[in-house]
Structure formats: C-alpha cells, structure tokens
C-alpha cells in the first residue's frame, strides 16, 4: 500500500513539473483566445473570461496564412524527400562497412552537421546568387536545407540499419537476389520504421526553418510561415492575442504529429543521437 | 551445366568494360559506392564548397559591384583587422561566451535534475518525460514569439509572477533593458534545450547497472553518497557528450535572437552568430560577415572534434 501512495505522490509531482514546463504553450493558446483589452489586464486571467474563437479565422485571413503555410509545407516536403532519397543509401553503406574510408566519411558527416546555419548562409547566399539559384528561391532553400539536415538523418538512420542483421541480406544473395534486390527488398523494409521517424523529424525541423528562408526568399508570396511570423511581430506590437493565434495555428500541426508519434520519436532520437 | 553457364557469363562480363561496370552496379561494390558517393558529393557541393568560399571571401574585398564575380580584390588580413578593431567586437564576443556558458549550465542542471527525477519508478514516467520534448520540436520563431509575450515589460506574465512571490518590486523590461536583454534570450534558450539534455542524460542513467546501487545501499551508502560515487563517475562519458552537444547547439541558436531582441538594444544581446548574419544581410557587408563566420566556424569545429573524439568508440558502434 505504501508504495502505491509514494507512486501516486511521484506521479502528482511529475504532472506538476510537466505543467510548469509546458506553461508557455498553455499561455500561447490562452492568450490567443483573449480579447484585445483582456490581454493587458492586471492580474492576468489564467482562463479567458470571454473566449474569442473567431480569432483563428480572423488572423488566418488577415495575414494570408494559407499561403505562408503552403510555402512551409513545400519547403518541408521537398527537404524531407531529398534528404531521405540521398541520406538512406548513404546511411546504409556507412552501417555495412567498417574501414578507414568509412571512418573518414563518418567524420565528414559529423563535422558538416555542426555548422551553424546563420554562419553558412553568407557564402551560400553569395554563391547561389552567382549561380542564379536565387531566381527559384524555394528550391534554393530546399537545397541548402537538405545539406544542413542530411547529416543528422544519416546518423539516425545508420543506427537503424546497424540493428538490421546483415546475415538476412547474405541469405537473400544466396537465394539469388542481386545486390540491389537485397538492399531494396530486405534491408529497406526492415529499416522502414526508423527511416520514417527520422524523415518526420526532418520534416518538423524544416517546417520551422527560419534563417535560410529569411535570407534567400525576398518575395512575400514565397515565404514560409516562420518568416511571416517574424514580420507580424513588429518591435512595438500590441496585438499579442493575434500573434499568439498565428503561433497556435502554425505550431498545432507539429504538436499533433509529435503527440501521435511521441514514443517512436523519443526512442529513435535516443538510439541515434548518442551513437 | 549451371556452373559452366555462369563461368561463360563471367568471362563475357570481364571482356566488356561497360557490362562489367553495370554488373558491379547491380551486384558488387559499385552499387554501394554509388549509394555513398552521390550524397557525399551533394554534401561537399553544398556544405564543403561554401565553407571554402567563406574563407576565401574573408580575404577579399566584397561589395555590391564585385558580388557577381569570383575574382575580387585580394586584401589579405584587412577584414580581420577591421573586424577586431571595431568597438562592438569584444562586447559581442563576451556576450557569446556568457550566452553559451549560462545556456549550457541552465539546460544541463535542470535537465539532469529532471532526468534523475524520472528515473524513479511510477506509472506514466516514460510518457510524461517524453512530453517535455515538445519544446525541442517547436519552431524557434514560435518559441521566440511566446517568450516575447511572457517576458513583456508591462503586461508579461513572468513579471507578474515574480512580483506576486515578492522577488521583484518593479517590472523588469527584459527585452529593452540592456542589463537583461541577453538574459531574456538565455531564459528562452534554456527552456528550449532542457528537454533534449534531459532525454540524453536519461539514456545514460538507464545504462548504469542497478546492482551497483544495491551493493552500495547494502554497504550503507546514502542517496547523496551513491550519487557522487556511482552516478557521476558512471555518467562521465554521457555528460561530456551532452555538454559538447550543448555547445554545438547553443552556437547554432539564431531564431531566438531574431524573434526576441534582434541583438539589441545597442548590441547588448548580440552574439557572434547573429552578428555575422546582421553584417551580411542588414549592412550588406559580406566580407565582414564571412570573416566573423570563419572565426566562429573554427570554434564550432574544434568543439565538434572534441565531441567526436569523446564519443569515438560509440561512433564506430
């Protein structure tokens, strides 16, 4: 009996800690539902008195969020697909062999993973402008972003491939499969879940990307939601309810994906990040 | 019968270089080399070349007229001399150090405390712990927007809470007071990174054999002694990896600066990675932007080398 009570106490403490930690998220949703005058009330109301459910539709139209979110989806999807196509094969080979060349390639990949985007954007921008890539700015962002996200993807997916026994592929070769066949029909299906979770992580990362888009995409029509949010937050803004509504619309899909796939994301991350 | 046919096929393959090439693509190492060569070529083109180009630009005179050509006037170390003789350089570098040290300390200590708490056995521990990671998957700009509002001077909820519990008597203008602007970004960054630290540290804690604790408890060691003599020594490798990852991620932080303070007021919250972008894309001084970038990339690479070396056995799997 005593253990149960201790456990209940611990559970209560854990829920309190989580509530404290996640308070900023709660505050975002609550603020978005308040009226323009209620947000400046002292003391602040922790539950809105008169929830303004219309705010989301209002802000969606006011800021043209459909276009911003579409651009975010285009950039995130393009980055995810390109990263997955290029990164999966790379991760597979890096998991299957072990020699000096593989060590060098791994070291290269790890090194490229750590380069801060805000420092790399200067040469990338100048180089892209010389190559004429700035005429297709969303494509340019996808290219630059793929180079940024791929090392992380390779590290995660490599960990997945290492848990697939290579004996299965050897068996497939003995059974008359070609090398491509063994990769395509044996290794890939077995690593499918790990690849999928890593790809979703890349999607979420690219969906929130800011510095490349801000620097490369000048036309407002082609900018993603992160740049739109930045433009919405002027230095002396007072419409915090509208800004929080924008933020809520932007972040809710990501939170939904995260809550649905939480277990897989956490385990995928922990298996790859420290290895 | 079968064997002789294969032998003939093999001989034919050897005779024809193209079909031998195709065969190796399908059956041999050629396929593997192709799988790894294309992505690496892509990475070298879009990360390696910009890296080299960055260094080259830091030794050139770059302006609007020479932006379109690769052959710009060579100026040697002029850009470096110019950057390091600017009055704002040293305060910004000092800010960078404060930002990195305070962020890592905050993220690590809170993350470690939470990780230890969640090693205790109670229902739902794993699920609740996982919920903390939402801070990590959120777009940086959204986190910045929320903290902008929480930290607002007149109507921010943090000031209200601090006043209610009697910690402060006057509102703190977190974003516009030069004494606090950097700390506004640090608070947001600690919130952002704590969960990631916690998860990695929790993995390390889970790998410590339980019988060590049981043996120590039998010997009469209390919880405090067990922490110092078992937990910390066993976690040394994990802690090293987490701290160097923290350094790498903290030096990548840009979104929070862009959304909370824009480096202001008067550069009081500016750090090197934001300043480099500001020089290039606000003042269009690409040469100086490249110069700061080169210096900072060097710092990051040194940190990364330490990280790779400290986790070397794990990297090789």
Brief summary:
Chain A is built from 13 helices and no strands. Chain A has one domain: MetI-like (MetI-like fold). Chain B is flat.
Q: Would you mind describing this structure in some detail?
A:
The complex is a heterodimer of chains A (275) and B (317). Chain A has one domain (55-273): MetI-like fold. Chain A is 77% helix and 0% strand. Chain A contains 13 helices and no strands. Chain A has helices spanning 2-21, 23-33, 55-62, 65-96, 100-113, 117-131, 137-162, 166-174, 179-190, 192-207, 211-216, 225-232, 240-273. In chain A, helix 10 packs antiparallel against helix 13 (240-273). The mean pLDDT of chain A is 88. By secondary structure, chain B is mostly helical. Chain B has two domains: 2-57, no CATH class; 79-315, MetI-like fold (Orthogonal Bundle), CATH 1.10.3720.10. Helices cover 73% and strands 0% of the residues of chain B. In chain B, helix 3 (29-57) crosses helix 16, helix 13 runs antiparallel to helix 16 and helix 15 (272-281) runs antiparallel to helix 16. The longest helix of chain B is centred in the N-terminal third of the chain and has 30 residues, at 89-118. Chains A and B meet through helix 1, helix 2, helix 4, helix 5 and helix 6 of A and helix 3, helix 5, helix 6, helix 7 and helix 8 of B.
